[in-house]
Amino acid sequence: MKNLSPKQFRKYYLLLILFPILFFVIFGILSAVFFFGLPSSHLFIMIGWGMLAISILSLAIVIMTSIKGRKRFLNIESEIYEEEIQIALKENKPINIYWVERKEHEVSRQGYYLHMKPEGLQIEEQLQDVEDGMDELKENLSQENAVSTLKELAENGRCSIPQYELPDEQVYDDGEYWWSCTCYVRSWSIQKTALSKSKKGAKRYAAYLVLCDYFGIEPEEE
Question: Is this prediction's pTM over 0.70?
Answer without folding.
Answer: no
